[in-house]
Design goal:
Length: about 325
């Protein structure tokens, strides 16, 4: 009799598994960990995406959990340690590909500890200067920079930030060694740029567009291979057309789940991601910020992972050449 009861219990559990998978996510909230401060560029992307993602998952609640610190590695590690049940995800940017080269030791493995769900968008970057800077064009800026006896102050939002990476490539491409000034985020860096405390900043359009549109900064170039379609940037040249061959810095954002998340749940999440990327309001918001919503093969898990692997190689070379790393 006991054996029969045990058998019935096991069969009931097995039969219940497909139903449980099919019911995901049910009414339980999904948390998206963002390894940056609230109000920053990645947080803006995450909150816009969360709204579209919520709708594509049947109006389930999607909560943003900001876990900043240590160049995004604290939040990434938190996501890696989360239960692999589909209810805790990670949304982060290019730092997923640069962390392995920037840090000697990491509490996670970006290629082994995560299931890749898809790329969300690409964000161009702009090279901008303080409003009182004497140079009005990029060629004039280079000549001005060469003539500065105490060097040029180049700000960034901290080790591993998008602006840090862009600054590394800018110095390498121009063969100009600048005085790098790291900040604790984008907001204080832009504040000091507007106030004239630093000379230059290379940062995402999600941060710079409002200041560029208002004419509050000198705008020298964009970092994409082609000019941007936005009316605000249509007359801004690319660094490549200005002579910096193969200068392409685009900050992408992707969505991840902890390794071990059930395949049925991963398929549900990927389908919801693709649907969210077609949401007209999400596309409009991203376009207004100068970002381009992903529509290519990188929205699939396999292509997303292959793309990040290539980015790890690309940025590893840049970072090692610059000798930039942290403990």
């Amino acid at each position: 009799m006991a054996r029969r009861s045990l058998l019935i219990s096991v069969v009931a559990m097995v039969l219940a598994l497909p139903a449980a998978a099919q019911s995901y996510p049910g009414s339980k909230p999904i948390t998206i960990i963002v390894p940056f401060t609230a109000g920053g560029p990645t947080d803006k992307v995450a909150r816009d995406f969360a709204e579209a993602f919520r709708k594509s998952l049947g109006n389930v609640s999607v909560v943003i959990d900001n876990a900043p610190g240590a160049g995004s590695t604290i939040g990434i590690a938190k996501a890696a340690r989360s239960a692999p049940d589909g209810y805790t995800l990670l949304l982060t940017h290019i730092g997923m590909a640069t962390a392995p080269s920037l840090y000697r030791r990491l509490p996670f493995d970006v290629q082994e500890d995560f299931a890749y769900l898809g790329i969300i968008n690409d964000v161009p970057m702009t090279l901008i200067g303080r409003p009182t800077l004497e140079a009005d064009s990029f060629p004039a800026l280079i000549e001005w920079a060469k003539a500065q006896p105490e060097g040029v102050n180049l700000g960034n939002a901290g080790l591993g930030s998008a602006s840090h990476l862009c600054g590394l490539m800018l110095q390498s491409a121009t063969r100009l060694e600048m005085v790098t000034i790291p900040y604790s985020g984008t907001a204080p860096a832009i504040s000091d740029l507007l106030g004239g405390q630093i000379d230059l900043l290379c940062d995402q359009t999600t941060n710079t567009t409002a200041h560029v549109a208002a004419g509050k900064v000198k705008t020298y170039a964009v970092t994409t291979p082609q000019r941007l379609h936005s009316a605000i940037y249509k007359d801004v040249p690319t660094l490549e057309e200005l002579g910096l061959t193969d200068f392409n810095v685009t900050i992408w954002h992707g969505l991840y789940a902890p390794t071990g998340t059930p395949q049925e749940v991963l398929r549900t999440l990927n389908n919801a991601l693709k649907q969210a990327l077609r949401d007209p309001e999400f596309v409009r918001r991203q376009t207004d910020l100068g970002a381009v919503v992903a529509t290519d093969a990188r929205t699939s898990p396999a292509e997303h992972k292959a793309f990040v692997a290539a980015e790890i190689d690309k940025w590893g070379q840049v970072i090692r050449a610059a000798g930039q790393f942290a403990d």
